Amino acid sequence: MNNIFLEPFAGDHELVPFDKISVRDFEIDISDAIDVHNCEIEQITGQTDAPTFQNTIVALERSGQMLGRVLGVFYPMLSANADDELMEIAYRMAPQITEHENSIILNQALWRRVKAVHDHEEASTLSDEDRMLLDKTYRAFVRQGADLEGEDRQRYRQLTGKLTKLTLKYDRNLLHEMASAQMWLTADDLTGLPATAIDAAAQQAREKGRDGEYLITLQAPSYVPFMRYSQRRDLRERLYRLYDTQCSQGDYDNTRILRQIANTRLAIAQLLGYATFADYRLTTTMAQDKEHVYDMLERLRQAYQPVQKADMNRLERFASEVEGHDVRIMPWDYSYYANRLRDHLFNINDEMLRPYFELSRVTRGVFGLATRLYGLQFTQNTEAPVYHPEVKVYDVTDADGTYMGTLYTDFFPRATKQSGAWMTNFAEQWVDADGHDHRPLVSLNMNFTRPTDTQPSLLTPSEVRTFLHEFGHGLHSLLSQAHYESLSGTNVYRDFVEMPSQFNENFLLEREFLDSFARHYLTDEPVPQQLVDSLIAASQFEAAYACIRQLGFGYLDMAWHTITRPTRTGVTRFEQKALHPVQVFEPVEGCAISTHFSHIFSGGYAAGYYGYKWAEVLDADAFEMFREQGIFNPATARHLRQCILSRGGTRHPMELYVAFRGREPHIDALMRRDGITPPHQ
Q: Residue ranges of the alpha helices (H) in 245-289?
């Protein structure tokens, strides 16, 4: 086979040869890799030796490396640089990939070998990491239908194949809708917008050949400033409705698709013996079951909701004073008036800080945080091939010069790229049979404010926080020291994976960190102390609203995945019932979240979105230890690296956390950080 993915990529660091990869070849590349993987599985099942941990579990873990290489490139490109050709290939290949995965799990000869190893007394003599791999492998087979018999096995194949196509179609619709949704404006429509937002809107219009006009899109760098600053309430409402009716009608309607996704997940769960998809999904999480999830959501709701309601009353009083008449806050009003009240109370807004957060300086500052905490060094590699000209590549080394991995950064929005921000891997870390440590290839993807003809990319504090968050995921991968790929880096329980990323966000409010990079892009002056003090003072301003909003996403996710029979309920009606406990605004007719809630319908967070709040409890508790011992205390940072960041999924996450903190996490630290309860005296 003349397939570039057949052997490990050339070079010491095995970087992806993007310059040699052709999109049109992916279809045959994937098919070839599946054939190779099938041969490897046959070698495992065809041997005459009795099943052992090495010849079955480790052999299965090491199989499929060619397929891992091709999909490790294919899927990240599908998220970050998907043209129509790549999306069509994905849609055609998805059933074949799913069928291949099913053929492994439902291979009875392979399952018998896995079960024999799991049940054999040898299992009790394994190391912690080996035992974790065995347990994870065994659970994967059981949870994906290996114990099914007869017609149920075929039913499982059909359902999983159907689910794959549905989630891909949901994602494809959303990508098309996001790219096509536009609000064209004239100069008269820009009242209240800061110069950075106006320049960006003009730049987007020029790129489409419409000089003298202004384009607002649903991408965060365009949408968020408009909703926060525009004095045109009619246009804020128009843009809000454009956003919250995404994929709810027309050519890219997801309403029927998302119900089918939820119902298909239910059918899979019940086929495997669970009452709901949440029951099925939560067995491999820290939460363990839906009762623990709802308990956490409810405890946070009871603590934060009274504060949120009082804050909303204050905001409506403020808005009424500003406008000279009674104002009832609607969803398209909240960001605008909250920003004005924040400015009024603390004399600070994003535009005051934006000049101090020039992207190249922020990048050096974020990388410098890892240098100061963990000794990592980042050296730009201008020779490495990339999948898009805007991507930058960095070789990452440890304090002693040891190569730790390669980091790719992709910062700006484009039509072929998903919205939001994420970290992914082109390759995971693992150690082969010869003891060679294969280091990860990590990709950070954001949608930051683009540079314009008149100024560089200047970030808001929220965008800097996003950078810190995704970089935290990246560190989790770069610092990994696991033996097995499926246990390395971010391959941990879903409600633990956000802990390292959210932990990183805490540094944004630390003066010592800001001093390392935050300087005015024109004058080179550091952030004035008054602005830093205001930023810190304002950090709790929207905490209660932000928590209730996040809880709403968690309740909605759980509602879709705790149905016990197929639902035919309309999406808006379903949402209204699910969100009622944490309802902030009256429902807006025609608007829905689920049609564009990609995290739960196509992004892997089904029955797991609560994990952001779960991990927030962990990260606040962990950072409080840093506050107690010094935020740059080398011993504390080394302890975090050794106990959590380097361990991946090699042990249960609660064991890892207790090893770091000395106890299980307390919710108190989060309450103190958000100002819900008083700080330590």
A: 255-271, 277-281
